[in-house]
Write a structure and sequence with these properties.
- The radius of gyration is 28 Å and the shape is rod-shaped.
- By secondary structure, the protein is α+β, with helices and mostly antiparallel strands.
- A hairpin with a 2-residue loop joins strand 3 and strand 4.
- The protein has a 5-stranded antiparallel sheet with strand order 5-6-2-7-9, covered by helices on one side.
- It contains 6 helices and 10 strands.
C-alpha cells in the first residue's frame, strides 16, 4: 500500500512547475519529484547605536529671541550633565532660509542640524527630557543599529536554512523517502513591521517615555528561505 500511495502523490507535486522553475531547471530536472519548504529564523538584539537628529533654529519665546548659539550652549550643557561625550555629537548641516512677510524679504533665518549617537534607550529618554525642558524640540530618532549586526545576520541566515532542511527531512521521513540535492534556494522578502520613529513635538508624558524605552529596547533580525529539494 505504501508504494502505491507514493506513486499517486509524487507526480502531483511536479505537475505544475512555475515558469521560473522551468527556466532554471534542466530537462532532466523538470521531471524529478521534489519537495518545497520554507525555513524562518529570528533573533533579537539590543541596539547599542541610536542616532538622534537635533534641529536648531532661531526662534522667539515669550518675546525673547532664542539664538542658535544659545541653543548650542544649552545642548552642550545637557551632554555634560548626562556625562555624554561631545565626541558623539556631529554637525550634520547648516542652512539659511529667507524670511518673508507680505511678499517682502524681512531677514534670513539660519538653521543647524546635529546628529547625536547614543548607546541605549535610557540615554535617549534622558536627552529627550532635558532638551524639551530647554525648549529644543526639533528632535527625531533617525535610525538604530547594533555593532554586531553583520555577524548576527549571518547566524540567523544559516539557522533559517538549517531549519528548512530539517523540515524537508522529517516530512519525507514520514513517507519513507529522503531528500536529495537542493534545486533552488531563495531568500524571501523581509516581512517585519517597520520600526516607527519617535519625534519630540510637544510635552513628553510618562507614557511617552515608557513607549520610547520599549520601542528601542530590541531590534529583531529575521530571515526566511525557500528551498526546493529533489527527492531520492
Amino acid at each position: 500500500m505504501q508504494r502505491i500511495f507514493l506513486i499517486i502523490i509524487l507526480p502531483l507535486i511536479t505537475l505544475f512547475p512555475s515558469k521560473i522553475d522551468a527556466q532554471l531547471l534542466t530537462p532532466a530536472e523538470k521531471n524529478i519529484p521534489y519537495i518545497e519548504v520554507i525555513g524562518s529564523a529570528s533573533q533579537k538584539v539590543v541596539p547599542d547605536k541610536i542616532f538622534l537628529s537635533i534641529g536648531l533654529s532661531e526662534k522667539s519665546i515669550q518675546k525673547k529671541t532664542w539664538t542658535i548659539s544659545e541653543q548650542e550652549t544649552s545642548l552642550f550643557q545637557v551632554l555634560d550633565q548626562l556625562q555624554i561625550s561631545r565626541d558623539q555629537l556631529a554637525l550634520s548641516d547648516t542652512n539659511a532660509s529667507i524670511i518673508r512677510r507680505k511678499k517682502r524679504e524681512t531677514g534670513v533665518r539660519f538653521e543647524k542640524e546635529y546628529i547625536l549617537e547614543l548607546k541605549n534607550a535610557s540615554q535617549l529618554s534622558a536627552v529627550f527630557t532635558q532638551l524639551q525642558q530647554r525648549n529644543i524640540k526639533e528632535v527625531n530618532v533617525t535610525k538604530t543599529e547594533s555593532s554586531k549586526i553583520i555577524e548576527l545576520r549571518k547566524e540567523v541566515r544559516i539557522e533559517a536554512i538549517k531549519l528548512a532542511k530539517a523540515k524537508a527531512e522529517y516530512l519525507l521521513e514520514a513517507i519513507g523517502e529522503t531528500i536529495g540535492r537542493p534545486l533552488e534556494i531563495r531568500e524571501l522578502p523581509d516581512e517585519r513591521v517597520a520600526r516607527r520613529t519617535f519625534a519630540s513635538n510637544g510635552i513628553i508624558t510618562q507614557k511617552d517615555k515608557e513607549d520610547l524605552l520599549a520601542e528601542f529596547e530590541q531590534i529583531e533580525i529575521k530571515f526566511s528561505y525557500y528551498i526546493k529539494y529533489s527527492i531520492n
